[in-house]
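dude i think i finally got it to work??
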Amino acid sequence: MGPPGTKRRKNPAAVSVSEQRNGSSKSRIASSSREDEKRIREAIVLWKAPATTLNYFCRELGSTLLDAGQRLWTRKFLVLVVVLVVALASAACSVSGPHQQSVRFLQKRFFWCAYWVGLGILSSVGLGTGLHTFLLYLGPHIASVTLAAYECGTLRFPEPPYPEEIVCPDDEVSIASKVAISMWSIMSKVRLEAFMWGAGTALGELPPYFMARAARLSGFDADEEELEEFEVLLQQREDPNGQSVIDRTKLAIQKLVERVGFVGILACASIPNPLFDLAGITCGHFLVPFWTFFGATLIGKAVIKMHIQKLFVIIAFNEGLVEKAVNLTENVPHVGKYLHTPFRDFLEKQKAKLHRKTGSTTSQESSWLSAVFEKVVVAMIAYFLLSIVNSMAQRYHKRLCKSQREPFKKMATD
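look at this
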């Protein structure tokens, strides 16, 4: 006991232990709060809470458009240049003259390339569940060109209607130019669209890279779940026990990219790799230069990987293998006799369609195979759009929770 009027001093060790306990309890409370928020956020989907999901989606869409408008306003010179280029292009298209043939050719090429770049971006940009545009669009296009090449005996399809439609040539020059079709000639025919699709997938991998790079430069943001998982993965490197196969695979990709650099990124981008987002996050976190990351990704996805995928489709749909596959359907137990005839009829109709006259119309009869494929495409696109609505609504909920936590963070730091 000290003299009256004096304050009793606290033991520094006791104070530090008390602060540690308070800090650990606060971290547990924050972790529990984050888990509750995540559990609530996962329930914000159209089939569980349609009104809330649509409300949050509209708010997030408005916020995104407003943010995009503000960014464009800060880049007035770039916007002005784009407007001038579009105005000049429109004037060139509207003014008649001998240049119109070249303008139409360039216009057709531009929209054709933009179409495949857009499909590539949708395949990898991370909107919703992602749209598998290779299986839905590019793969069938390469298969159609392959089947037509073997049936027509040439790759000089009339333009138009190619590439919207494929018709065997009926002029004497093209018929006389029939040669033996090879895999390399077919790959050359579809090289432009395949490269553009691959370039689109490379562009779609940039958001994780920029997100991780911005987080590293400005400080780690625990509200980003992808970055939080990456931080946990970095901590697991020191303790390999108890890791799952997926975690080991992620760590292997992370180590490859971190240690080898350009070659490691190129290796990850050159094969079908559903975990490539981790490579982008790793490059952004370790501040890998932009052109090192994007250059390796572009070469891997648009050149190496696309040639592998093209080769696979061309081999799978060559004339001999397709005939064997159709004949083998007859040997399927119990349902073979029901499958063989529709597949055979479908193949014969596709071959007959290739030999119609240019500009002529075909009968609108469709087999159940084409009807099923169309319904599958519509269903996948519909689910993709629904997943975008859900993900944007959940993103708004995450932003709402973050704004509600900000006053408490300021009080804790004061």
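The CA atoms of residues 62 and 70 lie 12 Å apart.
im so relieved honestly
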